[in-house]
């Protein structure tokens, strides 16, 4: 036992030395600053006027959730799709008719040498017990090659003054999409460790020891989020942030979909399958879903059908428009309906949640630097099949937030 402990200590020591050597090769980045992704971000539970609509200069959708009491929580990115990015959360208690000012902000200050602490991607999720979770990723200068996925949770998300747990680090990388609960009770969390092409030039020589782990990972919790361990992963061809999601098929396999840089010759979403709960995955190939190069949303609905929300590919131009919802009754082999949630240009990055009454809420952004709008649509399966907002309470283009500050550069 003693020899095993000594071996483990020596292994940790060697890894630490490797990381230190790699980072010291990056001029001007002290070790303590480079390790920001290992320390909790500053979570502001009482944001001031500097985060008001009139001050914000950018808006990128992150996620939406609905609590057991009916409160809507929305999260989005301000500051820019760049090293200045930070997170904002707001709520609605009237089904989205009105929204609170920012209720929580994750915006760490710069490091001592002036490097940006970036909080760029993440998502909200209500677990089966009703607890609200926020997963978010922090790094230096957008992506330093390692980054880190962090999580906080809230037991009373419907309270006047919700209380949140202290941040806990899950692993390296970025997590853009919600966990999925499998039939056996496991929680699967997607985490992507981006490839070297995404690393900021200040860290171009750092974290070479992680290069064989740059892929779309799946982390599992079997204790309701108390701990997370890596189960498996797969390298996506021509990756672009991965932004992967999963659906458990009725035959027990897991169906993963991921974003690529047109890896298969035209605009397609990659797919891979696992027959062992996510430990191993098939070679990624082109799926039957065509979409413009952007984030999409996929989820199994209460009816058993599968929902996908994505930008419709336009043959004549490469622009993010016509955000569209479709459903499948045959496990993703074919798709029906086609409800256009927003047909304007530069609408993107959907995330969603389904309420107990079957209503579906989808959050997205519009013209991140110009209009700086975060919006949502509410609809049902009936609306998707009718290709129109026909059900009671269905609505489109509902404003959550509009930044009115000086436009981001």
Overview of the molecule:
The chain is mainly beta and 409 residues long. It contains three helices and 25 strands. The chain has helices at 2-24, 31-34, 381-386; strands spanning 43-44, 60-66, 72-78, 86-92, 104-106, 117-126, 132-140, 148-154, 168-171, 180-181, 187-192, 216-221, 229-234, 245-248, 254-258, 268-274, 285-290, 297-300, 306-311, 321-328, 336-345, 347-354, 360-366, 373-379, 395-402. It has a five-stranded antiparallel sheet, with no helix packed on it. Strands 6-7-8-9 form a four-stranded antiparallel sheet, with no helix packed on it. It has a four-stranded antiparallel sheet with strand order 10-11-12-13, with no helix packed on it. A hairpin with a 5-residue loop joins strand 2 (60-66) and strand 3. It starts with a helix and ends in a 7-residue tail after the last strand. The relative contact order is 0.12.
Task: Supply database-style keywords.
409 residues, mainly beta, 5-stranded antiparallel β-sheet, 4-stranded antiparallel β-sheet, 3 helices, 8% helix, disordered N terminus
Task: Give a brief rundown of this model.
It is built from three helices and 25 strands.
Computed CA radius of gyration, to the nearest angstrom: 21 Å
Report strand order across the widest sheet: 1-5-4-3-2
Mean pLDDT: 91
Instruction: Indicate the low-confidence ranges by residue numbers.
Output: 1-23
In helices, the fraction of residues equals under 10%
Major beta sheet summary: 5 strands, antiparallel
Give the N-to-C terminal Cα separation: 57 Å
What is the global morphology? Answer: globular
Give me the count of strands.
Answer: 25
User: Which sequence of SSEs, written as H and E, runs from N to C?
Assistant: HHEEEEEEEEEEEEEEEEEEEEEEEEHE
Q: Given the structure, what is the number of helices? A: 3
Helix/strand/pairing class, anyone? mainly beta
What portion of residues belong to β-strands?
35-45%
């Amino acid at each position: 036992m003693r020899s095993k402990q000594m071996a483990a200590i020596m292994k940790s020591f060697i890894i630490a030395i490797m990381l230190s050597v790699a980072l010291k090769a990056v001029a001007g980045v002290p070790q303590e600053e480079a390790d920001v992704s290992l320390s909790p971000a500053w979570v502001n539970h009482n944001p001031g006027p500097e985060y008001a609509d009139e001050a914000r200069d950018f808006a990128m959708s992150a996620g939406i959730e609905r609590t057991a009491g009916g409160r809507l929580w929305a999260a989005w990115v301000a500051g820019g799709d760049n090293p200045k990015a930070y997170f904002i959360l707001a709520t609605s208690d009237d089904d989205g008719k009105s929204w609170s000012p920012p209720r929580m902000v994750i915006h760490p200050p710069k490091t001592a040498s002036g490097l940006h602490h970036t909080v760029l991607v993440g998502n909200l999720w209500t677990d089966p017990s009703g607890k609200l979770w926020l997963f978010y990723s922090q790094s230096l200068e957008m992506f330093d090659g390692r980054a880190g996925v962090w999580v906080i949770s809230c037991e009373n998300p419907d309270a006047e003054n919700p209380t949140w747990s202290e941040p806990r680090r899950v692993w390296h990388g970025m997590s853009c999409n919600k966990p999925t609960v499998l039939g056996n009770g496991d929680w699967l969390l997607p985490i992507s460790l981006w490839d070297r092409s995404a690393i900021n030039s200040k860290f171009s020589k750092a974290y070479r020891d992680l290069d064989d782990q740059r892929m779309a990972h799946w982390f599992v919790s079997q204790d309701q989020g108390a701990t997370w361990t890596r189960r498996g992963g797969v390298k996506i061809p021509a990756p672009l942030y991965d932004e992967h999601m999963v659906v458990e098929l009725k035959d027990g396999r897991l169906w993963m979909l991921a974003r690529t840089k047109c890896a298969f010759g035209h605009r397609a979403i990659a797919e891979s399958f696992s027959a062992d709960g996510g430990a191993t995955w098939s070679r990624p190939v082109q799926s039957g879903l065509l979409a413009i190069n952007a984030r999409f949303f996929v989820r199994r609905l209460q009816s058993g059908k599968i929902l996908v929300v994505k930008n419709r590919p336009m043959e004549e131009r490469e622009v993010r428009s016509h955000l569209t919802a479709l459903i499948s009754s045959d496990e993703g082999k074919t798709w029906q309906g086609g409800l256009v949630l927003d047909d304007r240009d530069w609408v993107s990055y959907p995330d969603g949640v389904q309420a107990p009454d079957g209503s579906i809420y989808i959050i997205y952004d519009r013209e991140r630097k110009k209009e700086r709008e975060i919006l949502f649509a509410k609809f049902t399966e009936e609306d998707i099949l009718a290709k129109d907002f026909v059900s009671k309470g269905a609505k489109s283009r509902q404003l959550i937030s509009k930044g009115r500050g000086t436009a981001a550069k």
